[in-house]
Amino acid sequence: MIRKQLCVAVMALTAAAGAAYAQETVKIGLIVPMTGQQASTGKQIDAAVRLYMQQNGNMVAGKRIEVILKDDAAVPDNTKRLAQELIVNDKVSFIAGFGVTPAALAAAPLATQAKVPEIVMAAGTSIITERSPYIARTSFTLAQSSVIVADWAVKNGIKKVVTMVSDYAPGADAQNSFKERFAKGGGQVVEEIKFPLANPDFAPFLQRARDAKPDAVFIFVPSGQGATFVKQFIERGLDKAGIRIIGPGDVTDDDQVNGMGDAVIGTVTVHHYSAAHPSAMNKAFVAAFEKANKFRPNFMAVGGYDGMHLIYEALKKTGGKTDGDALMAAMKGMKWESPRGPMSIDPETRDVIHNEYVRKVEKVGGQLYNVEFATFEDVKDPVKAAKK
Q: CB neighbours of 58 closer than 8 A, spacing ≥ 6?
């Protein structure tokens, strides 16, 4: 009898401890591609999340923060299944990451149904935040950089362009935003080329581009594919034909640009982040990131780092409460200084507002970097701005 009573008491204490732990722990489900073609995105975001927690601790507003990492390999069906498991079984208070747009969209209905905030740290299609009132973005939109590339091209004598983009939603956003703005400035898109997202062979498409004899190729490929594109661009002799590369910064991704060779020097892109951004905060971020990981942070890393900042600060505002509506209200309009520069969450769209930088690949200290030389401040998503 005594033994039975002791067992019951132990079970009760264990259950109470478990309940207390659940109440005092805020779980974040981090869904990113750690394998497959977009694995570099997951690697960067995971490293940035760990760095943020190392620097800021794992306690916020009296709650312990626990990150549960899941690899979806950038396959939307995987994303949906993992998000559901995290929400139902693990009782997460946030789902975060999302390496590609289809993954972010797959999770959106679940975020709405469960009223769990979805923090998009990577995907860049404009429509994402429109798919759920519980989505906030710390990454970027392709249109933010693409319209500025178009303005720069017109002002710098580029009149004929071939657009080359991955055939999925961000590629369409990039191409359409560039084309519309470029035409307004008097430029002409002489050919529009799309290629498969998965394992593209750029060579035949590059030959088509060369045959069109443009002044430049506007290129969008997702993070991780830029090195292959540049290699085949050079092999096909487009650089020697006087054709320039322009586009969003994905093509000269900080994670890969140093291995692209001197032929890429002078390439102009527009992006919201460069590892060479000269602020004191970014210099400290890059140094800490490289020390912890032995590789250079890119724009995916800063999206993950800022995503954790958004989560931490929202929890501070709610006093640790994890009600989804309260957390989303706390996020809207939030402003802070990021390694990328000043940024905020648009209170109307829940998209990021940040600077866009015109950059040129240069050799600095024997390494290749995207060196910023012009700044466009507080850029909103132009697709949503146009709808208004």
A: 64, 65, 66
Element (H, E) at 364: strand 352-364
pLDDT interval class at 226 (50, 70, 90): confident
- The beta strand positions in 160-251, using DSSP E, are 160-166, 188-195, 216-220, 244-248
Asked if residue 291 lies in contact with residue 268, where contact means CB atoms within 8 angstroms, the answer is no
Predicted TM-score (pTM) of the model is 0.90
The answer to whether 133 and 301 are in contact (CB under 8 A) is no
> What's the rounded Cα separation, in Å, for the pair 116 and 309?
17
| Cα–Cα distance measured from residue 361 to residue 94, given in angstroms and rounded to the nearest whole number | 37
Closest CA to 97 of 144, 141, 66, 135: 135
> How many angstroms from the chain centroid is the CA of residue 383?
18
pLDDT single digits (tens) 30-57: 999 999 989 999 999 999 999 999 999 9
- Could you give the 3-state DSSP secondary structure of residue 297? coil
Residues 291-331 have pLDDT tens digits of: 999 999 999 999 999 999 999 999 999 999 999 999 999 99
Cβ atoms of residues 353 and 370 within 8 Å: no
- Do residues 376 and 362 touch, judged by C-beta distance below 8 A? no
Closest CA to 300 of 380, 360, 224, 379: 224
- Contact call for residues 208 and 233 (beta carbons, < 8 A): no
Residues 6+ positions from 308 with CB-CB distance below 8 Å: 48, 49, 52, 53, 56
34 in Cβ contact with 71 (< 8 Å): yes
Rounded CA-CA distance 54/73 in Å is: 26
